Amino acid sequence: IEPKSEEKGIIKFIDCNGRKQEIEAAITKPCIYDMQLEKYVTKVTVQNSKTTSTDYTDAKLAKQEINAKEVNSTTVVVEYTIRVTNKGEVAGYIRKIADYLSSDYKFSSELNKDWYQDGSNVYCTSLADTKINPGESKDVKLIVIKQMKENNTGLVNNTAEIVSSYNELGLTDINSTEGNKVKGENDMSSADVIISIKTG
Questions:
Q1: C-beta of residue 31 within 8 angstroms of C-beta of residue 3
Q2: Distance between CA 160 and CA 189 in Å, rounded?
């Protein structure tokens, strides 16, 4: 039996005598399960002869400039916020989130207690026991490091995706296949950082 939700509705009809009638009735429809993931840049820290940090509010693109003389001695630390939102009608749990780490980045387990690395990807399971009700959002942070060189300036794109989730009704996500790395589905999102040489 497919799980269904119920809501009130008006049914209009014509009775046997040809008169228009309206009645209020309960209308059932299939329950929707839909978990959305969004990824943002929330802070970029540039470390060289001095340390400067720039905070961002849910940025999809962050830009930083570095003095040409200090490129080889610069470390850039990028903080991402990964936000999971329940867009459906059923509470759910996020078993695992994957970040498909760019080759430009280095992962540090000391900076990311809720994440672990497996191969070239990193994974977070900290929301596995957290119920996310319809309309609710939960955030996790990921901090990565980029060691600058003269030949690795430019844009870095980094992507995260829901790899596994579940709900007590056993429903599958209505518009996404978890962990399939398909762009355009709402369980997958990316954010960009541009690091360039300061001119003038």
A1: yes
A2: 6
Tokens of 19: 């008169």
CA distance 5 to 28: 6
Beta carbons within 10 angstroms of residue 50's beta carbon: 7
Interacting residues of 61 by C-beta distance below 8 A, sequence separation 6+: 41, 191, 192, 193, 194
User: What are the tens digits of pLDDT across the range 75-90?
Assistant: 999 999 999 999 999 9
Q: How many CA atoms lie within 13 A of 47 on its CB side?
A: 9
The candidate with the shortest Cα–Cα distance to 147, out of 117, 119, 111, 107, is 107
CB 27 within 8 A of CB 178: no
- How high does pLDDT run on average in the chain? 92
Helix and strand tally (H, E) in the chain?
0, 13
